[in-house]
Amino acid sequence: MGKKITDKVTWVGKVDWELKNFHGQEYSTNKGSSYNSYLVRDEKTVLIDTVWLPYDDEFVNNLKKEIDLNEIDYIIANHNEVDHSGALPALMREIPNTPIYCTENGAKFIKAQFHKDWNFVTVKTGDTLDIGSSTLTFVEAPMLHWPDSMMTYMSGENILFSNDAFGQHYATESLYNDMVDNSELYAEAIKYYANILTPFSKLVTKKIDEVLGFNLPLDMICTSHGVIWKNNPAQIVEKYLEWANDYQENQITIVYDTMWNSTKKMAEAIADGIYSADPSITVKLCNVSLDDKNDVLTEIFKSKAILLGSPTINRGCSYAVAGIMEMAKGMKFMNKKAAAFGSYGWGGDVVNQLSTLLKDAGFELVNDGYKTLWVPDNDQVKSLNEYGASFVNSLK
Fold first, then answer.
1. Is the pLDDT of residue 51 over 90?
2. 210 shares its domain with 314
3. Of the listed 35, 42, 140, 225, which one is catalytic?
4. Which residue among the candidates 38, 192, 193, 240 is catalytic per the annotation?
5. Domain finish residue from 183, 215, 243
6. Relative to the CA of 52, which of 20, 126, 253, 382 has its CA 20 to 30 Å away?
7. Considering 16, 42, 83, 157, which one is annotated as catalytic?
8. Which entry of 49, 81, 140, 299 is annotated as an active-site residue?
9. Total domain count, the chain
10. For the domain that residue 360 is a member of, what is the CATH number?
11. Do 291 and 239 belong to one domain?
């Protein structure tokens, strides 16, 4: 069932309340998601993006209830990833000659994905499509977050169809940002940025500056996941500029794994030391074997510094710690400091290994780390308190 956004634009997407993982198992979607598709009716009729592949037949059938498919003059594919283009094959079986507007990379990727040579019309930044009283202007956005990505601006309605940019994996039937719990909304928005767009932060800033330079009026940002930014849409643009600028809060996150609770005890003692040195600092502890990995990466993104801890296992570190650091390396976090800690039994030098992982991921090490033989005793707990306090002082 479509939902009218304006007299000319109708949301025709799919809300997926049951989605719990995305990109395989790479991204947790505890709040579900939506696949936002938009039907634009002016003198010409345009469909902007489709939905994820599992819902292709449902999408096409629902679209038929909104419009005779043969009345669709153009299809715009802002991004070819299957959560946006998955219903294209089912749709194109119905209207095979309809032009598909996309970037050059978009056409190449869609062909490689579906092995169909549809009627592609490739566009570049500044190219326009006259649809009647409104004009659609295309803006390439490579690596936000794929090489084929683009945005589409609709004059008259002053809507930016931003695709993945400014989105969230957040299921809602309410559509608009001022109709949902904003604490939930921003938690999902920063998680989305931290886990998907962080590696491309410099490009984010550059692209936003470019779009702002067009001086286009902006009444709404229609994303491809989550809410539509209708009430003060500039707020999420401002947040993106903030998040893209080596973002950090007054937070230290302790990321660790533990086998028999030795490393857990170390993490808690360090946390106590941090708090005693500066109660204004937010301290968060994340056990990477228990906590959601994307939530952990979000906390790292928010932090000005982290401490990384692991027991020694077969002369190395925990696989969960190694895994989260491999993900962190891909995120290319900037302007963050770190140190390592760990416990050992009869051998291994896990602290040096963790320090290497931190350096390889771009963190600035502030000391050589702290290691404990087996379980820390009361004296070592006090020493770990002092270590936490000294870590705070090293950040000043």
1. yes
2. no
3. 225
4. 192
5. 243
6. 126
7. 83
8. 81
9. 2
10. 3.40.50.360
11. no
**Confidence band for 391, pLDDT divided at 50, 70 and 90:** very high
How many angstroms separate the CA atoms of 270 and 179, rounded?
Answer: 41
Which among 222, 243, 264 is the end of a domain? 243
Identify the residue whose tokens are 């416990």.
343
Say if 395 falls within a structural domain: no
Does the active-site annotation cover 7? Answer: no
Structure tokens at 89: 């094959």
**Residue from 10, 240, 41, 218 nearest 131 by CA:** 41
Q: Mark whether 115 is an active-site residue.
A: no
Catalytic site residue 292?
A: no
Q: Is the pLDDT of residue 118 over 80?
A: yes
Ramachandran sector of residue 265 (left: φ over 0; alpha: ψ -120 to 50; beta: rest): alpha
Instruction: Identify the active-site residue in 145, 170, 257, 299.
Output: 145
Which conformational region is residue 348 in: left (phi greater than 0), alpha (psi within -120 to 50 degrees), or beta? Answer: left
Catalytic residue, candidates 16, 49, 56, 164: 164
Give the pLDDT confidence of 127-137 residue by residue, as tens digits: 999 999 999 99
Q: Are residues 234 and 279 in the same domain?
A: no
Q: Flag whether pLDDT at 181 surpasses 80.
A: yes
